[in-house]
Design goal:
- The chain is an alpha/beta fold and 297 residues long.
- The chain is built from eleven helices and ten strands.
- Helix 2 packs across helix 7, helix 3 runs parallel beside helix 4 and helix 7 packs across helix 8.
- The longest helix has 15 residues.
- It is globular, with a radius of gyration of 19 Å.
- 43% of the residues are buried.
- The structure holds pyridoxal-5'-phosphate.
Length: 297
């Protein structure tokens, strides 16, 4: 291992009268504390990719994402820290926002391409990039090396849990958790909250990453209209949660996850004595695109 970050991601217990009433315990794995920009699961997904890129002698990282992508910013920051050049290929027309500007500050070159071209990323990479020194990283960091990095969320755990909960975009993090749970023979159930609408396909995607899916319960009802969409109910929930816990969450990923968790707790989904852990996957810069709509006055 050449490139590494010292990981600080404690398991912290949360307190709420509801948890006492339902006789359960709730903990959060603070992957948001790993790094402010190479945040949460994005570092875990990049780690083995960066090392492999280095091993192959590649000097440039090329990756893909939408205009508010946490993965784009994480790749830019990691490239800067570990001595790579980076190119971010952004879906759609040219835009400016704080996430992309911070990526540029980390030295990333941005290329905006139309949505049609963007659909076949591997082809675009082949046709536009010099493969001798550029390393391809898929949208969201999805890859089998990323799964390997995410498995370590499970191997780091210091306690046993009956349930682990995580949000899902590409499902790569969930795949890593599923592999970790299986390889350690844990009795832990894995609950996955997709942030996209109609996301039943995610189980197939997880299977494609060679992860077991029989232990996964997919909760597809907490997408709030789709990717990066939110509603007043979710925004109000986030305000309440953040002000009571001191833990910042955002509406694109962890907000939907924690909302779903509380909803399930209220509906007695978890048996008495359950020890629940949810993974805070970071990505708090995503909040910057939502603050104006959160009715904070
Ligand atoms: C990218 C991201 C996810 C989704 O992770 P997948 O491995 O793609 O499912 C979840 N949470 C945050 C904060 C993210 O930035």
């Amino acid at each position: 291992m050449v490139f590494n970050l010292p990981i600080y991601s404690p398991e912290e217990e949360l307190h709420d009268p509801l948890f006492i009433e339902k006789q359960i315990q709730v903990f959060v794995k603070r992957d948001d504390k790993i790094h402010p920009f190479i945040s949460g699961n994005k570092w875990r997904k990049l780690k083995y990719n960066l090392n492999y890129a280095h091993q192959l002698g590649k000097t440039n990282l090329v990756t893909f994402g939408g205009a508010w992508s946490n993965h784009i910013l994480a790749t830019a920051a990691a490239a800067a820290q570990f001595g790579f050049k980076s190119i971010g290929i952004i879906r759609g027309e040219e835009v400016k926002n704080p996430v992309l500007q911070m990526a540029q500050l980390f030295g990333m070159e941005l290329q905006f391409i139309d949505r049609q071209l963007y659909k076949d990323k591997a082809l675009y990479f082949q046709e536009h990039v010099d493969e001798s020194n550029h390393y391809f990283i898929d949208e969201g960091g999805r890859s089998s090396l990323a799964v390997k990095g995410c498995e370590e969320i499970i191997s780091e755990l210091t306690q046993a849990y009956s349930h682990v909960l995580v949000s899902a975009g590409t499902g790569t993090t969930a795949a890593g958790l599923a592999v970790g749970i299986e390889s350690q023979n844990l009795a832990t159930k894995l609950l996955v909250v997709p942030v996209l609408k109609n996301a039943d396909f995610i189980l197939e995607d997880i299977k494609e990453l060679n992860a077991p899916i029989d232990n996964i319960n997919l909760l597809t009802e907490y997408h709030f209209g789709g990717y990066a969409k939110t509603k007043k109910e979710l925004n109000d929930f986030i305000k309440d949660f953040v002000s009571k816990s001191g833990i910042l969450i955002e509406p694109t990923y962890t907000g939907k996850l924690v909302y779903g968790m509380f909803d399930l707790i209220k509906k007695d989904y978890f048996p008495k004595g359950s020890r629940i852990l949810f993974v805070h996957t970071g990505g708090l810069t995503g909040l910057l695109g939502h603050l104006d709509k959160m009715n904070l006055d």
